Amino acid sequence: MSDAQPDPRTEAEPDTDIPVSPVRLTAVDRPGQPPVTPELVDLYRGFEQELLVPLWTEIGDLMPTHPRPTARAHRWRWNRLLELAGRAGGLVPVGRGGERRAIALANPGLGGRPCATPTLWAAIQYLLPGENAPEHRHTQNAFRFVVEGEGVWTVVEGDPVPMRRGDFLPQPGMHRHAHHNAAGQPMAWLDGLDIPFQYAVEAQFFDAGRDTLDEAEHATPDRSRSQRLWGHPGLAPAAQLGPRAGTPLLCYRWADTDAALTDQLELERAGHPGTVEHGHALVRYTDPTSGADVLPTIRAQFHRITSGTQTAPHRETGSSVYQVFDGSGRITVGDRTWSVTRGDLFTVPSWQPLSIRSEASASDSDSGALDLFQFSDAPILTKLNLFRSRTESGPKDAKDSR
Questions:
Q1: Three-state secondary structure string covering 168-215
Q2: How far apart are CA 218 and CA 209, in angstroms?
Q3: Do the Cβ atoms of 109 and 357 come closer than 8 Å?
Q4: Res. 99 pLDDT band, cuts 50 70 90
Q5: What is the DSSP string of 260-304?
Q6: The CATH number of domain 75-401, selected from 3.10.580.10, 2.60.120.10, 3.30.1120.10, 3.60.9.10
Q7: pLDDT value, residue 338
Q8: pTM of the model
Q9: pLDDT, tens only, 143-162
Q10: Cβ pair 376, 326 in contact under 8 A
């Protein structure tokens, strides 16, 4: 009797991990498909059993002629978000486990997931007077944008950074950070992260930090150490130059953003170039060490649209979230149109045309214009050579760029 063992290459046990195949194939009688025969039906049953899907049944979904986003254009009202966040402040503590009192936007096209778009996470975060949000770090790139209020300091790698109306505060991944509210009133702000993207590619990590901050980190300086090193236009500290995974400037002040937008429009009025279209000033937040986007996966920009201006329809691959900083107007995304006012948020799915009409005035805007903060996933698509944009100047006049 032979002692030889079966060759595992030829007598492998059947895979029993999937008792019922999730693959379902139906032979259909239509142009571009093979004739429906018993042999074809039997072939499809074999494909199902072995977890296989033939391209000829799926090519219309897998390779459409243009993006067909699952996310939808949607608007969230800031006053309603603020009301609900305030109610949460009285019911939900901040601490380990929950980590943050942050309430995420859930796009209606994404099945209830806490995602504003397939790649972007946006939330309102709310901190009561005297509260601390505990320290942690994560691979997700993040930022905070303040539409109103002040009194909270975010502490990044031990550096307390003040947060005030109009400030944009980027947070590259894996930097330890916490928050503390030194004011006598609550404060809310917009959080943005690339959580859905990192979740989809299964590359995310999270580390809890210390439960409490030391006395020095509870300081409330007017300028952070980051601001003192990197907050000088066109000037960089020679001792700190070198490759980085994101901007070292932890706060882009509203005074600088406002001045840049104002100057663009004043140059336009004087007959000089500077705006992206008539009545539409646009600035991009950039890394002072490279001029690139502030974060590897997130582009942040700020728009100022003069009252009465209607922007040309514009499309981009990838998705964006906008927040109204000041003013009012009418937003059209695809076949959806809304009125918006200060704080309101809305999403623009991939390749959906966006057009904006400013209806701002001195009564609802400090600048007299419609001011909009925008963040998008453009850096991801650019790195993959997938970013395209198109501005339609008229029915037969369009510009297309990649």
A1: EEEECCCCCEEEEECCCCCEEEEEEECHHHHHHCCCCCEEECCCCCCH
A2: 16
A3: no
A4: confident
A5: HHHHHHHHHHTT---SSBTTEEEEE-B-TTTSSBSSSS-EEEEEE
A6: 2.60.120.10
A7: 97
A8: 0.90
A9: 999 999 999 999 999 999 99
A10: no
